[in-house]
Amino acid sequence: MEKKAEKNFKEIPEDLQRLEHYFKDRVGxxxxxxxxxxxxxxxxxxxxxxxxxxxxxxxxxIQLIKELVNLNERERPSRNxxxxxxxxxxxxxxxxxxxxxxxxxQVLSGLLGIVVEGxxxxxxxxxxxxxxxxPEEPDTEKVVRGSRDGYVENIIVNTALTRRRIxxxxxxxxxxxxxxxxxxxxxxxxIKGVANPELIETIRKEIxxxxxxxxxxxxxxxxxxxxxxxxxxxxxxxxxERADVGAIHLLEGHVLIFIDTSPSVMITPATYFHHVQxxxxxxxxxxxxxxxxxxxxxxxxxxxFLLPLWFLFVLEPSLLPEKLAYIGPDKExxxxxxIQLLIADLGIEFLRIAAIHTPTPLSTAMGLIAAVLIGxxxxxxxxxxxxxxxxxxxxxIGTFSTPSYELSVANKIFRMLLLIAxxxxxxxxxxxxxxxxxxxLVSLRPLNAxxxxxxxxxxxxxxxxVLIRRPVPGSRLRPSIVHPRNRFRQPENKP
Length: 495
What we know:
By secondary structure, the protein is of the alpha+beta class. Helices cover 47% and strands 12% of the residues. The chain is elongated and about 100 Å long.
């Protein structure tokens, strides 16, 4: 009997006073100012509307209320008031739910709930109008040529921007709700017949198994659950705020994860070399794109190895050829060189963090003060060698040239560890540090995809495509790392 009573409680009651009591007790009606209720009498039957102010489009609700009120003039009293209202709702998205939990979740998500006295069902009308900004070009992925729109914090807008670029009937967006309290909307996007079904099922299962009260940090929380990241600093998924980048990865066979309230879309699976590509390479000719890519690779290499190599040559001058014997400080300082390097490297990080928290009109002034005054005075008083400032600055520029912010920070952490290894063990420390670094990257397998593919395991054709930006007509095959169901991006030439 208790189980039956519990089941009946979960169903929408015919008595609307019980439903009102449920919303007052469980949802906060009458306590939370934004939980709204509107009572109407339609065809001599009580009708109630439930909504959340701020998440709904008021114009839509007013229009629907007018349609309902006009039923009193156009229709005769009937027992089928629920069906009459359902057929007269002038909206493209109307759903019927039968449980209190479903109704409450939908109302709190910004939809309109309509209940009729004597019916154990509710009509859910999509009148959402989430607050947010208009699509604009992301600050971290700017291009000289190309579209200026980008993903925003609204999941509906983000899926629409993607579907605008891929008008394929096989494009799918599966919706989930994650978080016992936040009930955040999450959608996985893929192209049926192209994406690997096993990858889709793995992501679907991992998202469904997330058990947490809320994911206010959105995408990063999902990444940690999905990838079991732990304390690994290297990004295991690629983030993008550009709709064209998301679309091209869907066409390659990747699976995208959209999280409501986050403008960043997760691309899975992702390897190390996915994080070093940028949309600008594909907005220029193949030759220019390749040049830009090599320049970027050089900057990334400098951000990791330039400082440790220079420090190693200073400690072991015999490693340098005679023509490069000028490398290294001319005089010794009271401050050990390793301390200078670490302080200068951390100083650059201080400036980056300060720039994030400094209002835009003041950030330029702060940069000038730091670069001109602090840097020059530090050299004049003998705290730093001028060469230390030079090479730390070059390494910092290489860090900023890394397309992925997460990858650039991870590379900085490794660079500092490699500096310490060189300071302790010199040449063996550099060799051992680089070996451990490479073995660690090779050991990573996000979603069972080798992180260093196509370098390890070596795939010559794919590796050439990493080094050289091939013309689009020559890119006939999808990358094998995603195990696509359809390998060919372009139909084979018919005889």
